[in-house]
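Model the whole thing, not chain by chain.
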Amino acid sequence: MPPRIPTSSASSSQALLLNQFSELVISPRLSASSSHHNGLITATANSTFQTHNNSQRQRSSLSKRQFSTTPPRQRLTRQRKQFWQWLETSGAVMRDATQPMNYVKAVGARDTSEDSRDMPFPLNPEFRSQSVLSDEAREIIWKSVVEEGQPIKVVSARYSVDMRRVAAVLRMKAIEKRWKAEGKPLAIPYAKAVQKMLPITQLGQVPHEPINDVHVHSYTMQQVFYPTSESREFTRGDAAKAFGKHIMPVDHKIRIPELINLEKQLAAGVDRNVAEEDFTKAALESEQKLKEREANRVRELEEAKTKVDTGRFEFRIENVNVEELVGRDGRSRKAVGWRYGVPFNDRKKGMVKIPTKVE
Amino acid sequence: MKLRRIARFHGLKRPRVRQTWNKYNLYNLARMRVPFLNNKTFFQQKWWAKAITRGYHGEHIKERKWERMFSRRLISAVDMDPAYLAKHDGSELASGRGSGATTAPKAERKGRGEKKAVAAITPYMQMIYAPMERRLDQAVFRALFASSARQARQFCVHGAVKVNGVKMKYPGYLLNPGDLFQVDIEKVMYATGMKKEHITEAPVEEAEEAASEPAAPKEIDAAADEAAKHNETAKHHDKMKSLKQLRKQAENALKAASSDLSAKRKIALRAMMKDVKTTWAKVAGPGSNPQGPEQIAEQLTKLLSELDITPAADKYKDAPKEEQPAEMGTKEAVEIEQGGGLQTKQERAILKRLIQEELENPHDPSKPYATPWQPRPYMSAFAFIPRYLEVNQNICAAVYLRHPVARQGLAEVPTPFPSGINQLAFNWYLRRG
């Protein structure tokens, strides 16, 4: 509640009263300290009697709130009282981060087991505060990919960190390093405080997260009656075909399919070092392939353009199919300019103009 | 869009759990119960569930807008173990079925990386508000860059949020997997830091403590100056002025060097030490960093070698350094310098660490939050980062890796409500979905 300032006629008399009976004012909050109590009274005195002895010094130290001349409410509601009581007993440990995962327990809960420690919401056991990568872990990932030149798939598999996360760590680490080099300020105290509050993965000792997640396709959520002969070996590939023509078997859908070969080799009794070397080679190859594919795509796009260099300008001419560009109804977002017979809705009320992607 | 104002946002009488780090909210979260709903009609149950869940999930977003975002397709993921895939081709699940086998062979798989599954089911019903988590303002809040969803929204609107390096002023921007968003560091520090007025009282107490004893007038001046300095803004006193002040304080300390090191003297010295650090922090400001901690340590040594105060210096020498809190550390450093003058490597290391800390987290009255920066109270009770985000706190940036998914026993959408309530809410939206 903002401080309320009474009307001018009432203020002086009220302040006087408050000054006179300053000893009688009782702070209603259970937690209110004596300094707060004093502050209220001296502030009142200062605001009305400017000639007060050491008003300057004390005034500078007081917040605006304490200038309020409104007397505090004398009575707490029952609920408010219970709130303050809770805040001073079981809620007191919540105030500062004394340990990671300092989460609230339900009022009156007897369950202090380790199982509910990572539950930020007491009623929802299906949401857990899962561990995050520490600053050191990010540095390790950066080193192994950028400095040692290991493929992302290998780093992901070794530390059991999702490939997308590895990529994100590298992206942000690059920004961080650039900022450091530029002398830009970082939020280091904030970062340290947050890392103290969260559970941290010990990288390399425990797996951080599942790395071979497969999205559950809605086609695979139905039951299919598919008659087949008893003698047939009905594999995952066959099952995928039975669900739909475009459904891929899990072996191809997982993020690091090279790991299957690694496991097969290990099961066949191949030496671990040899198998891992093969895995690294395969991972490197797939990464190269991806890079090549991307480079080809960009090159083809460039080649499709006709370039005319006039010395001063280079004109780049592209073949465009208008029907494809403006869409079936002529209103595609990609379309440029005004088209005959199509209302131009750019400035119309209620049209959503939030971009759908940023590149 | 004009935001809806809510009269009792954190009311205790009709409590609603909100997306904030407020202490009232914490209390409401702690005492939340699922009421007895069996005497209500199904419609009433759904209505109540919708109301209470929407009170948390994007209450600042209009209902019509959310209805358009709602999707009945809830996404989930399954972790596939490559060892299992290498060993079996899937045919083992059907083998022998025609020859009398009735149950599938027991799968010998363990979850990879997951601690435990609470229940064997996949909690799809906890995923209703997954589309909401895609919004930029929600993601900023989930990444712990703002203390409430409304504040996160304000950050977007005020242009403090960038997506892939481009300023994004729409809080309703739906993040795509792989999008990197950054929030202005100062805004984050302000949102998550302690309020300013909490700390300004501390030096005044010191000043009053000193003032209550009439013996040392110079100390009063020094302490009062210090107190006044805390309340001014940095704009008003430039480098020269603070350096002058510093010199004056050093002179004061030197004059009284022969007398005993009393508590008052310690206070004055501590204040001076703080000032020294502040000044150097300013000189070696965050933008240009001409002086490393080594040079500053040297300069400090030179300055403080003039102080030759022997008593009470040995007290902290033998104590283990890590156990001392930061403030004690400062005092300790002062006293060690007084005694030995930073002779040993260890002492120099301590001072270096202290200066490093000061450089990282300086006292700066010009900031809108209390400095040195501290997390705001009750932040830790709300601090978690869901797995669909990867956050780098140093640069206040995060990547939206993928959409939140449900797994066996775990749902990634942070919701304070149990499955039953969310299921009722889901049914409400199915009706109009």
